Records
---
Amino acid sequence: MYRAVDSEGNTIDFYLSESRDKQAAKRFLKKALAFSYVSRPRVITEDKNPAYPVAIQELTEEKRMPKGIQIRQVRYLNNIVEQDHRFIKKRVRSMLGLKSFRTASWMISGIEAMHMMKKEQVHQRVKSAQNEVEFIHKPFGLAS
């Protein structure tokens, strides 16, 4: 699971992939950088996954990575992201893991949607109860 969190702990985006390889890292970074409500990030802090530098290099060559972003691979600076993961870990651990990728995708999308509502991030994007319902349906492909 890949996760982008801003400096205030707000979830920018998440991406679930079956593998943590270069293609998955590149897909996630493109998706996270594409959010319109997020201005150009100053710093990207990542774990020591060897796929990140390769994906960042390719995105830079394709001119999809804005210039001037500092890239950090410092373990303790990644704590904001790890703290955001704990809500998913708490739920999945009690269920003794998830058996299939499809189940994991649906379950984590639901947990993420509810967690964003709990952190009151939904109100930044939606203004009515109907829009909240659409926000919840979107991760599951139910939105029309």
---
Amino acid sequence: MKLFLSLFLPQLAGAIGALFTVKAIPTWYMYLNKPSFSPPNWIFGPAWLTLYFLMGISVYLNWIKKTKQAKFNVRLFFIHLFFNFIWTPIFFGARNPLFALFIIIFIWLFIITMIVRFWNVNKLSSLLLIPYLFWVTFASLLNFYIWRLN
């Protein structure tokens, strides 16, 4: 059950967020000024699908441990997942890149914290978050430039 929830809940968060994205791309997002390094829209789905899978395995590797730190890490992960989840409705649903920028910076700080804390419980669980950190770093820059250009 822990493995199922670890893999399912991040994907569910992404799927719900995708509902906001799909509606906003043809009506709002495609008309925004974007930086030259903005990737094509098709890349976001596979990237997030992969990242949510890696995140799920990462939290599962903590969830199966019986230590206090591992239990705290799991709670930290799910709190972080809430902020990850709300970024999409804020950016695409509310069309508010500035507020979304504050949220994504908060997410970035959560990821750094999780990488450090997860390392002490299971090194692989920590390493699985590195691609997520890179992606959110890139997404933060993209978010910043979209806000700045518009």
---
Amino acid sequence: MTPLPLPSEPPPLFQDLLVEPEEARSILRPQKDERYGFGFALSPYRGCGHGCRYCYVREYPNALHGPGDWGGWVAPKVNAPELLWSQRHKLHQARVFMASATDPYQPLERRYRLSRRCLEVLLLCPTTEVIVHTRSPLVLQDLELLRDFGERLSVGLSIPTDDDTVRQIVEPHAPAIPSRWAAVERLAAAGIRVSIGVAPLMAVHDARVFARRARTSGASNAWVGGLRLLKQDPFYKVLADHGWLKVLAPEYKEGIRAAFLEVFPPPKHKREARVEPVTAPPGPMASQPGLFDRVG
């Protein structure tokens, strides 16, 4: 008689989050972004423990989870650093955005450290520019590593509202707004170029005070981005119930943007403020390590 198979172990939990480690087949996704131009997006995780209620990534096809499960599961790409190392030849004079479809410094990073290990690979790619975007002060755990990149790395902090009571409703599992301001200040004090992403724009209490707070925090620039809703998005009801439908109006976004332009004026020869391309330092031309080169 053939014995019945034993049941497989359930996926592990991390702070009530379902953790589903996986082996990724690719790690660099070509992208064209209106702010940053051509380059690659790098996401060490699939899913996000922050579970922001408005996140557009909810609509991405997933065999096991639907939009209603967003924020309850994360799939760490456990081979991400090794996969990135094998594909580093693609990154010569390229720009890498980490991350577009997840937060690289969500709470699970404390355990897996995949974002740090990917950054360690990128540090060995001297012609590659890196943009780290997060809403978490957990980025500070890698402060020294970030400094090692010098001028070819910048950090963006997402602060979509100046009111933490708004944040508690739209981003209930994400870090508090005051802790994000503290992270901006520490990064800037360490000499790291920091930008503020007021995106996706949520209800703002005082736009001018918000903009001045961004400037005094040490941020080098800021930008305001609109909200992208899914078809028949339940988040629309959240906005309606709290009287925040104004954030969907183009004139509201332009009003907030105007307040930020007062303290972050765009360069005179450009239409909008943006991250400027990093120029190569004087000295011998840097070269990307070859695919089969040994480093260190």
